[in-house]
Specification:
By secondary structure, this protein is α/β, with parallel strands linked by helices. It has a single domain, classed as Rossmann fold. The protein is 39% helix and 18% strand. The radius of gyration is 16 Å and the shape is globular.
């Protein structure tokens, strides 16, 4: 797709990996992180495309925003970034892990629409797409742009245009999108489900999820 501005809220393993892949594809990326100094090497490599700032900076910068923070951070982070992401596509890569996120994981899992719908409830007006939550970051690093049947990235969302944008960015990062359905269908690819963290190809995922 044509170059876009991407804000990444959370520049850890998933956010950092995807940011590098999107930079290689020619997109502008601003990493939102509490430790921008850790990204100095990336910024020096791509000084015209890469930058770093606060979570709010990244949310305001991006035409599309990737949310890649621990789930427990969402209730505190939501009020500060929600005004900046209203009307924008937000790719939600978060997962509920009770050992890490405590009661927040239970609350998100028990939400009628699943974890990403719970995240969306903190980001009023954003077009949330569940994306990049099912694959280990090392697999993303190693399998980007592999030939043949590409590594599958599941997508779930309620807005067709947001899903199309997400799919294009999945391809630009070097993977193959697999449409799961509406946002509440994202529950089918959360931790504990059969396809979670399997590294399946797009065709294998589509077959396993019954969306081929």
């Amino acid at each position: 797709m044509a170059p876009v501005k991407i804000g990444i809220v959370g520049a850890g393993m998933i956010g950092g990996t995807l940011g590098r892949l999107w930079l290689r594809a020619g997109h502008q990326v601003r990493f939102g992180t509490r430790h921008p100094e850790t990204l100095q090497g990336v910024i020096e490599e791509e000084p015209t495309l890469a930058s770093a700032g606060s979570a709010e900076d990244a949310a305001a910068f991006g035409d599309v925003v990737l949310l890649a923070v621990p789930l427990a951070a969402v209730p505190g982070l939501g009020p500060s970034i929600a005004p900046f992401v209203a009307g924008k596509v937000v790719l939600d890569a978060s997962n509920p892990y009770p050992d890490r996120d405590g009661a927040v994981a239970t609350e998100a899992t028990e939400h009628p629409g699943g974890c990403s719908a719970w995240v969306a409830s903190h980001l009023a007006g954003a077009h949330v797409v569940k994306a990049f939550n099912t694959v280990y970051f090392r697999t993303l690093e190693e399998q980007a742009h592999r030939p043949g049947d590409g590594l599958g990235i599941t997508l779930a969302g309620d807005d067709p245009e947001a899903l199309a944008t997400a799919a294009a960015l999945v391809r630009d990062a070097g993977f193959a999108p697999v449409m799961v359905g509406a946002l509440d269908e994202g529950r089918r690819v959360e931790p504990g489900t059969p396809t979670y963290n399997t590294g399946m190809s797009a065709s294998e995922l589509a077959l396993a999820l019954g969306v081929a």
